[in-house]
Prior knowledge:
- The chain is of the alpha+beta class.
- The protein has helices spanning 20-29, 38-49, 110-116; strands at 5-8, 15-18, 84-87, 94-97.
Amino acid sequence: MYTDKNLVCMDCSQEFVFTARDQEFYAERGFTEPKRCTPCRNARKAQREGGSAGGGFGGYSGGGSYSAGGYGAPRAPRGPREMHPTTCSDCGKETMVPFLPTSGKPVYCDTCFATRRPAR
């Protein structure tokens, strides 16, 4: 469905390949096409984070085009989450959750949620 595509980096003006595999990866996640080549994205990320452009936190390395956080504008730090009181559907304990519970859907406390969660 996808074929390799040549793009031009907006920083260094060098041509780089946006591989079919990377296009599929971007499409699955709703990302737009990269505007920068991998070295420029890594340099930009390192500059923003004030460190080296090494591994990062779970970047995609197959094909070399995607680097975690190397696209779009940097995110602003998120403030504290709004917590909502609710009753655990399993044990009946009062608990707080970071989302507004929906009527008719079960909500669990941390302990009950952990027991229901599949092992990794």
